Amino acid sequence: MKTNAVELTIFIVFFLAVTVLGFVASRWRRGADLMHLDEWGLGGRSFGSWITWFLIGGDIYTAYTFVAVPALVFGAGAAGFFAVPYTVVVYPLIFLVVIRLWSVSHVRGFVTPADFVRSRFDSPTLALLVAITGIVATMPYIALQLVGIEAVLKTMGVTGEWPIIVAFLILAVYTYNSGLRAPALIAFVKDILIYLTIIVAVIVIPSKLGGWDAVFGAADAKFTAAGSGGLTLAPAGQLQYATLALGSALALFLYPHSITGVLAAKNRDVLKRNMSALPVYSLALGFIALLGFMAIAAGTTPVGTDANTIVPRLFQDMFPSWFAGVAFAAVGIGALVPAAIMSIAAANLFTRNIYKEYLKKDASAENEAKVAKIASLVVKLGAVAAIIFIDPQFSIDLQLIGGVIILQTLPSVAVGLYTRWLHRGALIAGWVCGMAAGMLMLYNVPKLGPGGVVTKAHWGGSNFSLSKLGLDTTWTIYAGFLSLLVNLVVAVVVTLLLRAMKVADGVDGTADTDYTAEREDPSVRDLPDPLSDEPLSGRAPAPGR
Amino acid sequence: MSSPEAPAAVAPRRSDRSPWNWLLIVPIVVPLLVPLYNRRTPELFGWPFFYWIQLVFVALGVLSTALVYRATRRSRSERAAAAAAAGAPRDGGADR
Q1: What angle do CA A141, A144, A148 make, to 5 degrees?
Q2: Within 10 A of A455 (CB to CB), how many other CB atoms are there?
Q3: DSSP conformation letters of A12-46
Q4: ipTM for the complex?
Q5: Within the 64-93 window of chain A, which residues sit less than 8 Å (CB to CB) from chain B?
Q6: Global pTM?
Q7: DSSP code per residue over A78-104
Q8: CB within 8 A of A164, min separation 6: which ones?
Q9: pLDDT tens, B47-81?
Q10: What is the dihedral angle through the alpha carbons of A241, A243, A246, A249, rounded to the nearest 10 degrees?
Q11: Distance (Å) from the alpha carbon of B75 to chain A's nearest alpha carbon
C-alpha cells in the first residue's frame, strides 16, 4: 500500500508537539523535589478535578479500546457493546471504595495497592503476590497500546518495526524525565483530539452512508448472512455479557495504573466528582463502538487480515486526508498516555514491593525514585520487545488473562479496605485457587471461526461454557467472574479454619480513622516508613494532634 | 473523633455512611439485567433499543453518582472546621 503523505505529515506534527509537551511537563506544577516517588510516580498527589478527569480518562479509555472495541462490534455485533455497560457499572461500584483507598494511602503514604496490603494484613508474602499480579497484568496491556499505534501506522502505509521503536523510545525518555506529569499533560491533547474525531465521525459518517437506519440495516444483513453475531445477543450469550461487564468493572480499578490515577488526586471530593464526570467517556465509547457497524455499512476492508485496522481504514475512506491524519494522531497519542501511566504504575510496584522489600530495605526516597525511573524504562523496552519478537496475538491472549488474574487481588485489596476479617493465609490460598481455576477455564475456551468451526483449541476467549461443569445448558460465563467466586469461597472457608485453629493474623498497620481521612488531616508520612516492620497501629493520627 | 481544642461547633464528619449511598445500586444493577433490554424495539432515530437504552444507562449512572456526591458532600462549615482542627491546610486546600 502507498504511504499517504498528508496523513503522515499531520500525524508526525502532532506527535512532535506532544513530545515537546512531555518534556515541558517536568516543570509543570513542579513539587519540591522530583527525586521522590510521590512526585515522580504520583505527580505530588496534587491533581484537581480537571486534571484527574483527563488523567483517569486517558488511562482507562486507551488506544487499544478505540481500535479493538469497534473491531469486536464489526465482527460479532451486540456482544462487543459490553464495553458500555461495563463502563456504566464501574463508577457507582467503586464510588465509595476509591475514596477509602485514597484516604488510607494519604495518611500512610502508600504508593501502590501492594503497600496497602502489606500494612493492612501484615504480610509481605501477600503484598508480593499482589505486586507480581499487578505487574504481570499490566505488561501485556502496555504491549497492546503498541498494537493500537501499529494499526494506525499500517493504515497510513508505514511498515516495519522502526517507527514503533522510535515512538516508544521518545515516550520512555520523557516519562523517565517527567514522571506522571507527562501523561497528565498529554492527556489533554489526546482527549481533545479524540472527542473532536468522534463528534465529526458521528455526524459525517452516518449521513454519508444514508442515516443510522442504513447503518444498522447493513449490519443486520451481514450478521444474518454470516449466521453468527447479531444486532441483539443470542440467549446463550446474555449471562456472558452481564458477567463480562461486571467482572471487567470489578477488575478495572484493581489495575495498578488506575490506582495510580486515583492516588494522584488531591482530595476525596476530586474523586467523587470524577465518578460522575468520567461516564462522559463511556458515552463516547458507545459511539466509538458503533464505528464497527458503520464500517460494515461502508464496506470497509481491513489491511490484510488485521481486524484492528478497521477503524483507521474507515476514517481513511470517509474523511479527507488531513482530517484522517488528525484522527490517527488521536489514536496514536491515545496509546502514549496509558502506556506511560502503566509503566509508571508497574515501576512503582517493582520499586516499593520488590526492590525495597527484598533487595534493599534501607533504600532512601531518592534511591526509590531513581530505581522507579529505570524500572519504567525496562518495562517499556520489554513491551516493545514483546511486540517485535513475539506474535502480537500472544499479547492479546495475555491481556485477556490479565483481566482474570488482576481480579484475584480483589479480596485482599478491595475487601481489605472494608474488613480485616479475611485471614492473610486464607487470602493467599484464595489467590492460588482463583488463579488456578481462572487459568484452567481460559485454557479450555476454544476460538470458534465462522460456522462454529474450532480455529484454535485453547485461549480462545473468556466465555467459558457452563456445560463443561456438567450443566445442561449452552450458556457461557465470564471466566474471570467464576474464578473470583472460587477465590472468595476458598478465602472464607480457609479463614474459618485458621480462625478456629487460632493462627496468628498479624497486626493491622492502619487505623479505622485512616479510611475516612480528608486532605487536611495529618499524614504519618514523616513518621517511620509504612513498609518497615514496626507496627503503626498505635499511632493513629488524631485530628488536631 | 474531633479533639477537644477544635474550635468549631461542627465537628468534621468521620463516616462515609449515608442512606443516599443506596442510590448507587440502581446504575449497577440495571445495566446487568440483560434480558430486559436485549431486543430491537422500540427504535429511536433508527437505533435499535439495545443500543440507545444502554446510552441512557450512562445518563442514569451520571445522575445517581452526581446526586450522591451532592447529598453527601461536606458543607463549607464542616470543611472549615476540619481545616481549623488540623491546623492550616498544607496547600490552601481549595479545589480548582
Answers
A1: 140
A2: 10
A3: HHHHHHHHHHHHHGGGTT--S-SSSHHHHHHGGG-
A4: 0.82
A5: 78, 81, 84-85, 88-89, 91-93
A6: 0.84
A7: GGGGGHHHHHHHHHHHHHHHHHHHHHH
A8: A146, A149, A150, A153, A384, A387, A388
A9: 999 999 999 999 999 999 899 888 888 777 776 76
A10: -80
A11: 12
